[in-house]
Amino acid sequence: HGGYFYYAHLSGYSKEFQEGDQVKAGELLGFMGNTGYGPEGTKGKFPVHLHFGIYIHTSHQNEMSINPYPILLMLKKNIQEYHY
């Protein structure tokens, strides 16, 4: 519907996703990484972390950022823990 999710600093995806694939709350999408901004080769120089954003299209803006925190709180009951 014109919106998208933004993930940064992933170490990898859990499977090959294609644009338009549907995912469910709680589904494993990928693994957090430890890269940083800057040139290639920053892996391992930063703590493991993830940047997550939600962007939508509105009649006033082509790309509007939505605060994901309230949505993440709502989905908290579906948290899964993975160790690798």
Give the helix tally: 1
Quantity of strands, as a count: 5
Overall residue-averaged pLDDT value:
83
The profile of the biggest β sheet is:
3 strands, antiparallel
H/E element string?
EEEEEH
Overall geometry comes to globular
Residue windows where pLDDT falls under 50 for at least 5 positions = none
Structural category: mainly beta
Over the alpha carbons, how many angstroms does the gyration radius reach? 15 Å
Provide a short characterization of the protein structure.
The protein has 84 residues and is mostly beta strands. It has one helix spanning 69-75, and strands spanning 4-8, 10-13, 30-32, 51-56, 64-66. The protein contains 1 helix and 5 strands; from the N terminus they run E-E-E-E-E-H.
Describe this structure in words.
The protein has 84 residues and is mainly beta. 8% of the residues lie in helices and 25% in strands. It contains 1 helix and 5 strands. The strands form 2 sheets. The protein has a 3-stranded antiparallel β-sheet, with no helix packed on it. A two-stranded antiparallel ribbon has the order 2-3. The longest helix is centred in the C-terminal third of the chain and has 7 residues. It is globular, with a radius of gyration of 15 Å.
Relevant terms:
84 residues, mainly beta, 3-stranded antiparallel beta sheet, two-stranded antiparallel sheet, globular
Topology record:
Blueprint: E1 4-8, E2 10-13, E3 30-32, E4 51-56, E5 64-66, H1 69-75
Antiparallel strand pairs: 1-4, 2-3, 4-5
